[in-house]
Predict the structure.
Amino acid sequence: MTKPKFYRINSRGRVTDQAYALMMTWSREGVSLQEIARRLRVAWSTVQYNLVRAAPSERPSRIPPQLTSAHRRAIEKRRVILFQAATKQKRVIGKGGKTGRALKRKRVTRAYPSCAALQKCLAAEHGIEISTNTIRRDLHALGMTARRRPKGPVRFLGDEQKRLEFARAHKDDDVNTLLFSDEHYATCNDCGHGWQWVEAGKHPDHRCEDRFTPKIHVWGVIGVGVKRLVILPGNVNQEVYVEYCIKRNVDLFGGKVLMQDGASSHTAQWTLDELARLKVSVMPRWPPRSPDLNPIEQVWSVLNQVVNDMCPTDAQELEAAVVAAWNSISQEYIDKLVKTFTSKLTKCIALRGRTLP
């Protein structure tokens, strides 16, 4: 039997009458859904839908309706309105709070972030009644696409300006002289991949999250040719930070500039005095709430994945797993991450200080 040509599928998932007749014939002959799909060059779910749910009497005509010039003008007008609604932004400033900190919280988001929200907007404000599928097709026709929103810290008023000034001041720094540091909590929770391949009809394993899971506090520092991990004794204050992270690793800081975030243990005056006494140069004015600029955050992500594969169940196993995972990360990979710092600052400048994608 010759291989049939490709049969188009309409917006409801139904194939042509000729393809449907072939599906029925092959199905009666005992041909599997996968084989029918291969022969017709369609998805097996399309074959299943047409054989089980779509009766011939419900099969619409394959000839699409011809649009008049009035229809085209109405569609163009609707798409202009839809584009304005889809790109409209909403700025929210925090309210309340005894210290006034909440008043500085800032959030910028789309006013109508989903097709359902756009559908309600068009119906309420413009009297346009259309389905979410039509909205989705219009958005594609307008050149828009749906992307996963990245997670990031809450922004405060002035954060973007501080990030922009920092990026401009340090975009020409020599990355070979920079050391990036950060603290991190490693836990026994499942930090594995969010997706899992399973057999047909099976459900994926749930990701275990325990509120009181065993955890350890670590400090790491990376640079070109530098990689070191420190297990910390619980929470970090200025004395612990200076003793465990600085004094015990002072050999790393000669001729280097240490990056540290704005944690209170890092910026306390006693800590800064000790760093000056130990002749440790510190990168000034690291912008607040900017983990996306710190290459070590990607190291923590890799470390979490490796630790998860080892499945530790208590604090002792967790510590051994963290050390093994840290040692498994190659220096070559870390050097590449450190050298992305310049490109991160360039993107930050291009985005006017907004969070990196």
